[in-house]
Amino acid sequence: MYDQPIHVNDANFEKAVLQSPLPVLVDFWAPWCSPCRMVAPVLEQLAREYAGRLVVAKVNVDDDRLYASQYGVQGIPTLLFVKEGKVVESVVGFRPAAFLKERVEALLSAGTAP
């Protein structure tokens, strides 16, 4: 059970994200990105609140570019909502906590975000 975001890289992305038994919220970010730093505490809260039902994963695009490229990440932060190995929604840029919580609820309850 993860109650904090996990750090994922190109080497373990497939196992940690695509093969995860739980839905995963993936944050493609970089340390120099202000909106990324703004969304970080929101993601930490979501990780605590949904521990055991959701994995929050962070990928530093400065260090690991393979999956960022594969998923067409052009702006950061880019958040991917992944269920059963498939991206069901993506959000680019900072979003408030209430919006992200709503998207997580949709991911967990409906199976796929609308």
Q: What does this protein look like?
A:
It is a single chain. With 114 residues, the protein is α/β, with parallel strands linked by helices. It has helices at 13-18, 34-49, 66-70, 97-110, and strands spanning 6-7, 24-29, 55-60, 78-83, 86-92. It has a five-stranded mixed beta sheet. Strand 2, helix 2 (34-49) and strand 3 (55-60) form a beta-alpha-beta unit.
CATH class: Alpha Beta
Proportion of residues in extended strands: 15-25%
Continuous helix count = 4
Annotated CATH topology: Glutaredoxin
List low-pLDDT spans: none
Order of helices and strands: EHEHEHEEH
In whole angstroms, how far apart are the ends? 27 Å
Known CATH architecture = 3-Layer(aba) Sandwich
The neighbouring-strand order within the major sheet is: 1-3-2-4-5
Count of all domains: 1
Protein topology:
Layout: E1 6-7, H1 13-18, E2 24-29, H2 34-49, E3 55-60, H3 66-70, E4 78-83, E5 86-92, H4 97-110
Parallel strand pairs: 1-3, 2-3
Antiparallel strand pairs: 2-4, 4-5
Q: Brief overview, please?
A:
With 114 residues, the protein is an alpha/beta fold. The chain has one domain (6-110): Glutaredoxin (3-Layer(aba) Sandwich), CATH 3.40.30. It has helices spanning 13-18, 34-49, 66-70, 97-110; strands spanning 6-7, 24-29, 55-60, 78-83, 86-92.
Descriptive keywords:
24% strand; 114 residues; globular; 4 helices; Glutaredoxin
